[in-house]
Amino acid sequence: LLHKFQLATAQGTLKPVQYAMLGSLESILDMVLGIAFVWLGYGVAGAILGAMLGALVTLALNWRGWWIGRTVFDPVLARQMLRFGAPLVASALFGWLATFADRWLLGLFSGASDTGLYAAGYDLQMNLLGVPMAVMQLAGYPLTISALTEHGTQAAQEQLRAVGAFMVLIMLPEAVGMVLIGPLLAEIFLGAEYRPLMPALLPILVCATMLKALISYLNYGFFLAARTDITLISIAAAAAANLA
What we know:
Elements: H1 2-12, H2 16-39, H3 43-61, H4 63-66, H5 75-109, H6 112-151, H7 153-180, H8 182-189, H9 198-224, H10 228-243
Helix pairs in contact: 1-2, 2-3, 5-6, 5-10, 6-7, 6-9, 7-9, 9-10
């Protein structure tokens, strides 16, 4: 959480180079240390220890970037954050439910084996689409906030429209391409037992991921307008439809 806080600080102050360096350093240390501990015989505990030490080292090297000092508690600010943040907390929970409830349902009705086969294909397409989406959001959303702060609502709306158009321009061709080369992706990235299911599921999964990306983009406008209650309604409706 502290590592995410320092990344958010770098993002909010429009320092993409610092964001990239901190995020990359933590990821590299996580992998290197985790693999080393597993290789030394520590197993799952070693992988977890590597992840913890990777975040800890990154925090230690950048402590001036996230340490806010000893400040007096501000009850007015706390109430504002609570009113703004409580719907976001609930939205995050519903969003997690909308993303992973299908695995629970598969596990309940079909067993762990089918759930594992499904999860491999789901995670592959979600990461292939999710990485470019995250990059565009990390770059576009701070620019939108800056436009809102410096030039007002109209400028923020124009900037947000530009971000949305750019997301569609990049993600739609990528989604179509993933569906077309689905068997090849399965052959490259997945083991033999996972390959037969992925091409059949890929069109549905890719469409679902695209729609989730559009919901995320739409809700960011409500987020900027401080209408996090509308964000909660949309995410909760998606989670309820998913479960149904």
